[in-house]
Design a protein that fits this description.
Helices cover about 35% and strands about 20% of the residues. It has helices spanning about 10-15, 20-35, 45-50, 85-100, 110, 125-135, 150-155, 165-180, 215-225, 240-245, 260-265, 275-285, and strands spanning about 5, 35-40, 60-65, 70, 80, 105, 115-120, 140, 155-165, 185-190, 200-210, 230-235, 250-255, 265-270. The chain has an 8-stranded mixed sheet. A 6-stranded mixed sheet has the order 8-7-6-9-11-10. Helix 2 packs parallel to helix 12 (about 275-285).
């Protein structure tokens, strides 16, 4: 029976130009027409992904911020969130600022009217400035947390983080993980830069409430849609797809995926710039997708 297809965006559904190819669009439409639900799951916010959402039905679901938020794809209406409590968010922000960085507090914009609060006085790095010019993002600046910060942040902080050179962030990542690793989900990896280079010296530090990841919110999405979790098919490439690909009954790695994603995937498709999503979905609809399936063994025709 048809179930739920969950696909990552960057490095998975989007090609090297950041677009959804005609073949990928056609495959997802064919899946929808065949009765499959289709959801996007990304580290981006809904507003940062709006250019790519039209490849799925308006009544489909969108998993954003690495699993911290769930939205209606068409309207962006927030259906569910997993947030960091205000005192913890401020504690982490203080540590980030103490290491010479601006703290990035990603907010539930449906409650605040803005996407980010940047805390501190350090300059924003070049990658962040580029991202802000490329997307319809609203932000506020706090040189220091105001007296009513707890009230402004309560139930609204989806993620705390910063961006910087890998060697500068490494000690900060270790400190936060050592101090709050049981209370927070701490992740760090190469950032997407203006040159679209993954794994560069520019790294992102992202901190979430515990148990926030794409798989946990994919389960919430499946339950809302009335879909059996055992019928979830997931596609991804990056480290924020690890739980999604390892837990999905049919987790599929892109050919360009991180080796740790490749290692836990049950099937392997072509690269994101070679219509890997479409190739896997076409195999699914043809009844050929099974554990051990590889696009280079007849699936890429």
């Amino acid at each position: 029976m048809p179930g739920l297809i969950v696909t990552d965006l960057d490095g998975t559904l989007l090609d090297k130009r950041g677009r959804v190819s005609p073949r990928n669009r056609a495959a997802l439409k064919a899946a929808h027409d065949a009765g499959w639900q289709v959801a996007i799951a990304t580290g981006r916010t809904w507003s940062e992904s709006h250019h790519a959402i039209d490849c799925i039905a308006e009544d489909a679901l969108f998993i954003g911020v690495g699993g911290a938020s769930l939205h209606e794809a068409g309207s962006g209406r927030v259906l569910s969130t997993m947030t960091i409590d205000a005192p913890m968010a401020l504690n982490v922000a203080d540590i980030i600022m103490g290491h010479g960085h601006r703290a990035h507090l990603l907010m539930d914009a449906s409650l605040t009217g803005h996407d980010y609060i940047f805390v501190g006085t350090a300059d924003l790095d070049a990658a962040t400035k580029w991202w802000l010019t490329e997307h319809p993002i609203k932000s506020r600046d706090w040189h220091a947390a105001p007296g009513d910060a707890h009230e402004q942040l309560d139930g609204r902080v989806l993620r705390v983080g910063t961006i910087g050179a890998e060697e500068e962030l490494a000690p900060l990542v270790k400190l936060i993980d050592d101090r709050w690793g049981e209370q927070l989900a701490v992740r760090a990896w190469g950032a997407l830069t203006a040159n679209e280079v993954l794994g560069s010296r520019t790294h992102m530090l992202e901190i979430f409430a515990p148990r926030v990841h794409k798989w946990s919110m994919a389960c919430v999405a499946a339950d809302r849609l009335g879909v059996d979790r055992a019928s979830i098919v997931a596609l991804g490439d990056g480290l924020n797809d690890l739980e999604l690909i390892s837990n999905a009954p049919m987790g599929i790695a892109m050919a360009n995926a991180d080796p740790r994603i490749m290692a836990v995937a049950r099937a392997h498709t072509a690269a994101h710039h070679a219509d890997g999503v479409a190739i896997a979905v076409e195999a699914l609809l043809a009844g050929n997708l099974a554990p051990g399936w590889r696009a280079d063994q007849g699936g890429a025709a």
